[in-house]
Amino acid sequence: MYKIVFKQRLNPTVSMMKIEAPRVAAKAQAGQFIILRVDSEGERIPLTVADYDRDAGTVTIIYQIVGSTTKKLDAKEEGDYISDFAGPLGRATETEGLKKVAVVGGGVGCAIALPVAKKLHEEGCEVHSIVGFRNRDLVILEDEFKAYSDRLVMMTDDGSYGEKGLVTNALKALIDSGEKYDRVITIGPLIMMKFVCGVTREYGIPTVVSMNPIMIDGTGMCGGCRLTVDGKVKFACVDGPEFDGHKVDFDEAMKRSSMYRDFERHAHEETCNLLNKEAE
Predict the structure, then answer these.
(1) d(CA 212, CA 209)
(2) Could you give the residue range(s) of every CATH 2.40.30.10 domain in the chain?
(3) Which terminus of the chain is more exposed, N or C, with fewer CB under 10 A?
(4) Helix, strand, coil distribution of the chain in percent, nearest 5
(5) At what angle do helices 167-176 and 190-203 cross, to 10 degrees?
(6) What does the pLDDT look like over 69-91, one tens digit per residue?
(7) Domain spanning 2-89 has what CATH number?
(8) 142: buried, middle or exposed (CB in 10 Å: 19+, 13-18, 0-12)?
(9) pLDDT tens-digit profile of 217-275?
(10) Structure pTM?
């Protein structure tokens, strides 16, 4: 069992938890993920390591309440326990030799982008962070991005905070102004990453994306997280989760990600009803 030692609501649909998991904290790195189960009968879900404290033995996760499992997880409070917390899994972000990088995050994907920006900053890399949200109410981790970015551009779709527009608009403007990046690392919705890659392909800038497809065991055995990269089948759990964005088949990935949408909606509704009955 793994104890929740801290919980904070970041916006109406996104929460952060610190989980007591010393063995995971001892080896976790930016870009890796864990797989958890809320209880012994629950489904396994992957969540990226948002931060870790090796001394305290804790791992930070940030999740959006979108399905039945994240709804169950969010019903837990500080002092409660979750059943399983396995990791770290996946390959860590490769940062060696990078001098100047643009980190582009969208929505809850910013929780994954932040540890990457932090790692780059701590290694002496110049970091330009571009983060986008639908509106001001959904903004998360702004102060943290400021701490690890030499330049931070905040974007909102409706212009209610920062600059109005998409992260691709901001990235293109920076490149056109003369900024030269060794690499762009982008993490967020599939459609956002696809269009970021469209911009960087035009300028010939190497681009890394973090993929989070359907995943079950996290060891490459189930095949649920398969992707097509450069015409070959890859598994996000063991070959990734980061890949060359210019080689990922995003259209296939988006089609696969929507396969179980109706089932997930039904499961979420059932969980909400169950939790409401328990609260009565």
Answers:
(1) 10
(2) 2-89
(3) C
(4) 35, 30, 35
(5) 10
(6) 899 999 999 999 999 999 899 99
(7) 2.40.30.10
(8) middle
(9) 777 777 878 899 999 999 988 898 999 999 999 999 988 776 666 555 555 455 555 55
(10) 0.86
